[in-house]
Each structure stands twice: as structure tokens, then as C-alpha cells.
Amino acid sequence: MPIRLHIFGLPYTITRQEFSGDPSTEYILNFGQMMINYNFEVFHYGVETSQPGYTNKNINILTKEEWEKLRIESIMLKENITYEDAVTYLKNPKNSINELATANTPLCVEFNKRLKLNLQANYRDMTTDIICINRGILYNEALNGINCVVVEIGISDKDSSKSFRIFNSNSCLTSTIAIEKCSSPNYWFFIPPPFNITDWRFNLNPFSNNIGFLGHISNHKGCHIIVEIAKRFPNTQFTLCGPGDPNIYLSLPNIVYKSPIYGTERSEYLGQCTAVLLPSTMCEMFSRVAVESQLCGTPVITNNSGAMIEIVKQFRTGLRCNTLADYCHGIKLALDGKFNRVYIRERAAKKYDMYKIGYKYEYALRSIVDVFTPGKKGWYCENSHMNSLQLYYKESVKPKIYLFLPYFGKFPNYFQLYLDSLEVNIGLLVVFIITDIDLTHYKLPLNAIPIFMTLDTLRERLSKMLGEVYEKVINPNNLVQKVYKLVDFKITYPIIFNDLILSHKLTDQDFVGWGDCDLIYGNLHNFINFNENFHIIGGWHGHFTAIRNIDSFKNLFKTVPKYLELCTDNSMTFVTDEIAFRQPLINYLRNNNYKMFYINKCMCDIVPPMFYHLVRPNHPEFKKNFFNNRSPNKNINYVYFSKKDKQLITVYDDGESHETTYCHLQKRSMSLNFTEYTEFYIKEHEFSLVLE
């Protein structure tokens, strides 16, 4: 029987992305999603319209209408204001939603009253169920009189009181021990809060001279220090973003205000900053903004105390400062590009990825259950749960993606650029280049494996495979009369080239598939998180599709209606990989509850002229038609590739930009006038060097 976790939403917010500006709300959003992946049951208790992610049961304690009414009543009492003023107060983004984080408000009182009833109906017993609470003092009334196991999670303040506690930082844990003057408790744990690192997009090319602050705008958070720093950098913009009154800090022309932001906006904002400045005057017990900034690759300039010592690695992921001169030195380092944003992102992802630190939570929670399980003897239990921790510290071998690329004829003139971009993905992506073309003139990266094979030999393989599957004699000379006809065979490549799969010792955790070479790769490491247990990477497109190396997936092509006719009819190419294969693939994923990383949402798929009318019906009205499927109403300025920084960026005419998995050129003719480079632009009809 799995352990059931009862996770309480906060009375003063709704567990959904719109309220993720509150650290505790984001913690709850990620915590349940993380733990369900470790074979725990998750019950969430909150306000109607909550979206806690993956849960076994989502229980509404209050309706949205009731919640809105109780919020107004609570703020009226707390601030001693009228109904109209309370409504205005709650709508003002400058006011913190934490104002209602007290247990004696009408909102919390009613929430606890109903929570108690729902908890009594769903809590089984102390050997199987754990109540997980963040900001524990809010729920005392709901828990009074109930015989249950309660664990305070995500602690980053001094208000915790339960026997079982999980602290966000070692600083918070040790300071609490000092305050309470107790010996080191056996069931107090330090585990960083969970972060869904895919929510935080890595940005290698932030805006220049742009220093950001995100948090409550106040002296406590050091905004007056930001003013002093801004005086010394008059040509640098400092942005104050968050709740609070910014007016007293907007005394300089280079200090600007940005309203509070939530969800994906936070990632965009933090990633665009040259550095994030957090000069808090308090000893911070944790800083979510510091972690989020680093997940975007942005260095953090902050104070030299509390959890910041654990979060910021000196001179590597930012600078911890004691004096005004220290802060100015850190800003100067960031403006001069002295911090490696790739390293910053990689370190943060390794430390805070919720699908990895979940092992630590599993260890802690299972150890706590042993205290109440008959025969386990609690602290004296003979069996340890250290195996979970061992998995956390183990350097796991990540899956790889293996693509088959049969190619006959002539490579595109930018094939070396394709190979160079493939090299960016060593350790993640391998391409078998199956061809009879002489490759000696190309510089092949280690993850490009050449396989010499003629088209006739490949036809023999295709003939043999079709004969075995359909029990018919297929003349190989009647197959693939034109090379482009190979696209109708792509879905069979994992079977056709199974000998390569076996000889290279691929496992069932690896991915096999097909791809094209009329593209330039970005850094796929920044997008694909294998901990999310994907079974397909890509989608239903011929330029990049990879499926788990399992027999049921590899043989899925057999479910395509009339597939033998499609691949043997040489009168036309049916684009089977993208059309006839799509519905069987969708059905297979749905029936098996398999997850897909849909790569198209992150790619730049340049639309060729023949398809302008489908994607941009009014294309004759545009002076330029250099656009992709993702944003058909705006033109691309260029796509930027850096060999050194290992990144591909799509930049639009309006200045918007985003990192890109790959740029698919759809066989368009491109001019190329260079061979040596460190970075280049992909423009409408050419590759061009980036000039200093």
C-alpha cells in the first residue's frame, strides 16, 4: 500500500501558476508532482480551480466565490477599511498576497473548519498517511484533536513547531536548533525545495546592461542599497519588480519599476537580466529567486549570510557581498561577462531538479513512517532507507537519442555546419550517417557515426524486412525508385537497422528514430529532462522523431493501415512518417499513458514558399516572408548559432528572442561564403558571419 501524502494548499492563495509568486504556493505546486513520481499517493486540499498537477485526488475546501468573499472580509478586518477599499486593495498588484497569511482571519478560520472535516474523511491511519504542511501555524485549528503524522515541509522561517520538519536550507535548520536550544533532532531534515527545471528557460544572451531585482520592494530586501549601486552605474538599467511601493526608490533615471509577475513571465524576466541583484539586509533562510535566476543562467549578486552561502558559489554563480564596493564589483563582473552562464545553469539544475532531490524526500518521509509502523521500532529500525539517498548521489547514466540518417546523392552545402551543431549535443544525441558519399572532406564529430552502405544494399534490407512482416516476396529493385521515397520507410528504421542498435549496446532507456540534415541543432541538453520519463522525443515529424528502444514501439509501423501499399507504391511519396503514422502513434501513447516531449514547441521550423498560403494566408501583403510555424504573424530577423556557447537563438524583427532546439530549413537553398567561424547567423537565404 503506497504512503498517502495529504498536502494542504494555502488558505490565502489558490494552488495554480497565477499565484506562484508566493514561494509556498510554488513549493506546493511542485511537491505533489514530484512525490507522485516516487510511488506516493497525493491528496491535495485547496480552493476551487486549484491546479496542483499530478494528484490522486484534488479536494475543494472552498469554492472560488466563497474564497473571494472571505478574502475581502479578512482584509477589511485586518486593515480596518471599507468593503470597496478592500476590493481595491486586493486587486492592487503592489500589495503582497501574504497579507492574509495569519491564522485568525475569517478566511483561515473557515478554511480550517472545513479542512478538518475533509481530513477526517480521507486520513486512514498513522502507519500509512502523512500530512505535509507548509507554513504550519496556519493549520493548527484543523489538526487539533486528530491523531495523525504531521511533517512541516519547505521551512524557511522561524515559526516551525512540529516534531518532524524538513528545512529548505541547512542555515535554517541550524539556526532553529540554536533558537530552540535543543540537541540535533533525528527527524529534522535539510532538503532544498523542489524546482521543475523545465519551467526555467536557459538564456545565454540576456539584455546588456540590465540588472534585475525580483521580490518585495522594501528596505528589508535591500532596495535602498540598489539605489546606491545604481548611482555608480548610470548607464546601466536597474529594474525593481515585485509587490510593495517602489516610489521612494525611483529617484534615478536608470531605476525602473515592473509590476509583479508570475509563472513563465518570471523565467523570461530573470533570463533576460545580465545579473540579478538581491542585497537583502536580512539573513535569508532561503531565496527562491536566487535559485530561479541561476536556473536561467543568470548570476546572482547578494549578501554573504544565511542560505545565500549555500545557494551562490563565490565567483562562479555570482558574488556574495559584505560592502557596497563588493556589490559594485559583482555588478562589474556581470557586465563584463565574467560569469559562465552555462555553468550557472548546470550547477543549479543538478542541485535543485525536483526529479532528483525527490530521492531525499522519499528517504525522509519513509524514515518518519517507520516511527509509527508496528515492528519497525522507529529510530531503532533494522532497515535503512539509505538506498533512496544513494540514488540521489549516484551519477546516473542518462539515456541517449540515436537517429538513423540514410542519405544518398549530395549533401546540402551547409552539411559541415549541421555536423558542428550535432557536436554541441555530444553525450545526448548520436546520428548514424548511412551513405555511400565520401565523408573524408568533412570533420565528423564523435557523435556522428558513418556507416558505408549503398542504396542497393539498403533496398535489400527493406525487401527482407517487408517480406518477413507481410510474408510476401518483394523485389528489392522495385523499392525506392527515387531517393525521397525513403521518407515512407523512416518509421521502420529501428527495425531495418536493429543490427546497429544491438552492436552499439543500446538499452531500453535509450531512444531510436529518424531525422534530417537540412537543419542546425541547438543545445538539446537545455530542453530535454529525461527524469520526466518520456517515451517519445519529437512528435510525428520526419526531421526529428525518436522513440523508446522497446519492441512494441519499434513495431508500431505494422499498425499503419495499408502500409505495404504506401511504401511500395513508387508513383508518389506519401510522407507516411508524418501522416499515416500519426494516428497510430497518438493512439499508442494514449493507450499506454506515455509522455511525449513535443520538440516542435521549441524549434524554429522555417516555412518554405510552397506552404506560405497554408500558414500565412495573407503572405503577399508582407514585404518579407521569413517566418516559422511557431509565430506565423511575425518575421524572423535571424537565427543565431554560437559554437563556443553551444546555443541556437531565434531572434524576431520585433526584438523578441528565444532559445531553440533546432532550426529546420526545409531544404531551402542557402548561400554560404565562409568555412571558419565561431558564430553565424541564419538569414532568409544565407548563412552569414557574425561580425565584431
UniProtKB/TrEMBL annotation:
SUPFAM superfamilies the record matches: UDP-Glycosyltransferase/glycogen phosphorylase
Gene Ontology MF term list: glycosyltransferase activity
Location of the Glycosyl transferase family domain: 208-349
Entry-linked Pfam families: DUF6625, Glycos_transf_1
Protein name: Glycosyl transferase family 1 domain-containing protein
Organism per entry: viral metagenome
